[in-house]
Design brief:
The chain has 306 residues and is mainly α. Helices cover 76% and strands 3% of the residues. It has 12 helices and 3 strands.
């Protein structure tokens, strides 16, 4: 079949995490609660940073954008799953599936780039403290945020356009609770080699380069902290990047473990269950990590609530 000949596909079937009817109310309650906590927690972080002038710094500027990206990231998948459970309907149209994939990739990539930018911010703050305000000026911070959005947009658009070139036949069941890129590519009845190649190349480049930058930044940060004479100084320096390091470890640790396990496990349903750990858990836990480990955020949240 020629790549240009597209077959109009009316719908895909999302099989979800379980087909057992008695588990559906439990799944709905669980994911609705997790989604509510995710949105509420990240909104509180955004409002706390916006309303407290003491938090109008580069570190919290990027944190508020990370919280916004986390809300959007979770909103691309969980509401549709909740709707399908509530209506007892597993159908998603071709257009909705493409749209969901596009925004899922967009906000996942944006999370990835923002974590790298935040690592660079901590690197400058700890390794070059005297030049921090000069280097991390508002204009440069805006450019870093813009670059993150542009790269995420290009990544998502490229994969979206590559999906549009595929033709689909009759096997349209997706063993997942959302339209996962790799599974949709595998359903194509036209040649998907180029799609697989582009998918893995973009993952390696746009995932590996930011991760390398994060690791390099923390190598320099640890080296600088070890040179500090006093234990109190070391603790203060490390405490400024402890929350970010926890989030980075969770984001990449869970993501890599899920993808490595999915390569070893052929059960796609097991992979779908494991993927919950990187699509829902990190955005939900990020506000807790930053609020519990950060004194400034705690104070801002108390002011906001009171």
């Amino acid at each position: 079949m020629e790549p240009g000949n597209h077959t109009l596909v009316p719908e895909f079937i999302l099989l979800g995490l379980s087909e057992e009817a008695e588990l559906q109310p439990l799944l709905f309650a669980l994911f609705f609660s997790m989604y509510l906590v995710t949105v509420t927690g990240n909104l509180l972080i955004i409002l706390a940073i916006a309303t407290d002038s003491h938090l109008h710094t580069p570190m919290y500027f990027f944190l508020s954008n990370l919280s916004f990206a986390d809300i959007c990231f979770t909103s691309t998948t969980v509401p549709k799953m909740l709707m399908n459970i509530q209506r007892q309907n597993k159908v998603i149209t071709y257009e909705d599936c493409i749209t969901q994939m596009y925004f899922f990739i967009l906000f996942a990539a944006l999370d990835n780039f923002l974590l790298a930018v935040m690592a660079y911010d901590r690197f400058v703050a700890i390794c070059h403290p005297l030049h921090y305000t000069v280097i991390m000026n508002p204009r440069f911070c805006g450019l870093l945020l813009l670059a993150s959005w542009v790269l995420a947009f290009l990544h998502s658009t490229l994969n979206g356009l590559m999906i549009l070139r595929l033709s689909f036949c009759t096997e349209l069941e997706i063993s997942h609770f959302f339209c996962e890129l790799n599974q949709v590519i595998q359903l194509a009845c036209s040649d998907n080699f180029l799609n697989v190649l582009v998918m893995y190349l973009t993952i390696v480049l746009l995932g590996g380069i930011p991760l390398t930058g994060i690791l390099f930044s923390y190598m320099k940060i640890v080296s600088s902290i070890l040179k500090i004479a006093s234990a109190v100084g070391k603790y203060k320096a490390f405490s400024t990047c402890g929350s970010h390091l926890s989030v980075v470890s969770m984001f990449y640790g869970i993501g890599l473990s899920v993808y490595l396990s999915s390569a070893a496990i052929e059960n796609s349903r097991a992979t779908a269950i494991a993927s919950v750990m990187y699509t829902v858990a990190p955005p939900m836990l990020n506000p807790f990590i930053y609020s519990l480990r950060n004194k400034d955020i705690k104070q801002a949240l108390r002011k906001l609530v009171s």
